[in-house]
Amino acid sequence: MKSYLPIEKVALLNEVEPINILNIYYKNKSDERFKIIDNKVCVLENYRYPYADEVNELRQKALIIARSENALCKEISKMCDIKQDTLYKYFFRFTFKQIKVAKQIIVLLNEYINQNSLFPADELCYE
């Protein structure tokens, strides 16, 4: 569950000026990183990369199946219109600023795990 905090607190945590976060909000008020709570604009703590943790968790589970980053990117590229090299760069940089791309990668990773794992995704982990 994602938690929304007041912009001032998030700015303090990320060591940026609140106006920098507000500028993102003013460019696109329907951005899902922002929510109005008690007539105040609130933002996700990790507003820059809101889905990075979820993508990383799924990527780790998918790597258990694929065994290498290269193999994972190759298999996922077969499932979509994203090139293998592009996927590799996404995973290497691991920023996922574009929410649309992050959501697409999440769907692809879930699909890959469901198609190729003998175990439920919840049970996949390194121990």
Q: What do you see in this structure?
A:
The chain is 57% helix and 9% strand. It has 2 domains: 41 residues, Molybdopterin biosynthesis moea protein, domain 2, CATH 3.90.105; 72 residues. The protein has a 3-stranded antiparallel sheet with strand order 1-3-2. Strand 2 and strand 3 form a beta hairpin. The chain contains 6 helices and 3 strands; from the N terminus they run βααββαααα. The protein has 127 residues and is mainly alpha-helical. The model has no long low-confidence stretch (mean pLDDT 89).
Side-by-side strand order of the widest sheet: 1-3-2
Uncertain segments are none
Strand residue content: 5-15%
Q: How much is the radius of gyration in Å? A: 17 Å
Give the helix/strand class: mainly alpha
In total, the number of domains comes to 2
General shape? elongated
Share of helix among residues?
Answer: 55-70%
**H-E order:** EHHEEHHHH
- Average pLDDT taken over every residue: 89
Count of DSSP E strands? 3
Tally of separate helices:
6
Q: How would a crystallographer describe the biggest sheet?
A: 3 strands, antiparallel
Alpha-carbon distance between the termini?
Answer: 25 Å
Per-chain topology:
Blueprint: E1 4-6, H1 7-14, H2 18-27, E2 34-37, E3 40-44, H3 52-66, H4 69-79, H5 84-93, H6 99-116
Antiparallel strand pairs: 1-3, 2-3
Helix pairs in contact: 1-2, 3-4, 3-6, 4-5
In short:
By secondary structure, the chain is mainly alpha-helical.
Attribute tags:
127 residues; mainly alpha; Molybdopterin biosynthesis moea protein, domain 2; 2 domains; 3-stranded antiparallel sheet; elongated
